[in-house]
Structures are given as structure tokens and as C-alpha cells.
Amino acid sequence: MIDFAGFSLLGILFASLIAFALAIEFGRYLGRRARSAGGEHVSTLEGAVLGLLALMIGFTFAMSLSRHEARREAVLSEANSIVSAAMLARLLPEPRNIEALTLLSDYTGIRLSLKAQFLTPDSLRAAVERSNVIQEKLWRLGIGLADTDNAMVPTGLFIQSLGQVFDNQTSRVAALRSHVPDIVLFGLYGIAVTAIGLLGYGSGVRPYQPRLPAYLVGSLIALVMLLIHDLDRPGSGFIHVSQLPMEEAAEAIAEQLGRPR
After folding, report:
1. Which residue ranges does UniProt annotate as crossing the membrane (predicted)?
2. Given a cut of 70, is residue 64 above it in pLDDT?
């Protein structure tokens, strides 16, 4: 099965426009051949299929938008958990507090790298592996402090906050990997090609019916589909998830360490 995520957005747009143009011309050719049979019911059929296409577009758009919002919420949750862990790290005894803050600063830098415009599965996997290394160091640091003095309240709270940081990484990675299923996109394109082909058929059946309205509708549908693909891609395109909460978290930790912003 074709993986839509493996194609560029411009490539998908051009392929959609070409497919819709071919559907219009093929439908128009069939309509001209069937012109003698009359086209009384073509308008009804066009309306029904276009209504089905509108329903399918709305359904697919809602799926892509919900995934986009999930990614935005994941960034906010992860940034909040990192800031909470950094605040609790300041309560740890020296020099463990500086060590924990340094590790959290490095960890936040890796999480910020996920805002790259071209986020590939390989780069995401590499970022997760680097994050896991720092997670292990933070966890060993917390466990070491707990073994030294298990009555320290800050240490227990710090370990608990690390669990939230680790859980939020899993949630964010899952959100980044979540896409509209390809079978849904195949269904959307199948209905779109059929609907636009019927527009071409109608323009061929009716005498003196120009192609322009069918091409305008096809172009608009292709642009809407491009928007759906853009929302569904966290690492490329024109619509991006704001990384401001993570940037502010990195600045806050740098300030606690006395580093320049």
C-alpha cells in the first residue's frame, strides 16, 4: 500500500491536480458519447456524490485536526513536567542539584530538536534513544539519592516528577507517530476522483458546458486535501506545532544554571 507520508506535499498536490484533470477529461469524453441519451439525472448524481465527498472531507479533516491538537497538548504537557522536575531538582543537595539541572537542560535540548522542519522516522528514533540515555542517568541519580537518605521528601518528589517526564515523552512520541490511516486517505481520493469525473461527465452531456467550473472545483478539492496532509505531518509543510512552551522551559532551566539564554 502507498505510504502518503513518504511523498512531499507539493508532489501530492501536483499528483492530485493531474489525477483530477484526467478524471474530468475522461468523464467529459464519456459524457459526449452519451449525449444522445440525455442527461436529465446527471445533476442529481453529481449532487449526491459531491455531498458524499464533502462528508468524507469533513471526516478526514477532523481526524487530522484532532491529531494536530494532540501534538500541541503533548508539547505543553511535556514542557510543564520538565519545568516541575527542574524546580524540584533545585531542592536536592549539592552538587546533585546542579547535576540534575544539567541533565534536564540537555534533555530539553533534545526535545526541542523535535521541532525540526523535516522530522523523519529515523531522526525521531535517534532523538528518543538519546532521550532514553539521559532518562537513565536522571533515574540513577534519583535512586542514588534515595539510597543515601530515603527520608528526604525532595528526593521522593523529584523521582515522582521524573516518572511524569518519562510518561510525557511516550505520549508525545505516540502523538508524533499518529497519522490519518492510509485507507481513509485512499477512500477520500477514490470518492474525489469519482465526483470530479462526474462533473466532467456532466459537462460533456450538456451542450455548450465549459470545462472551467469542473477544473475550479477540482483545484479547490486538491487544496483542501493538501491542508489535510499538512495538518497530519508534524515535521514538514506549512503548519507547525508551536514549541514555545518547550523553549520557555529550556530558558528557565538555563537561568537556574546561570547560563546565558
Report:
1. 47-65, 183-202, 214-231
2. yes
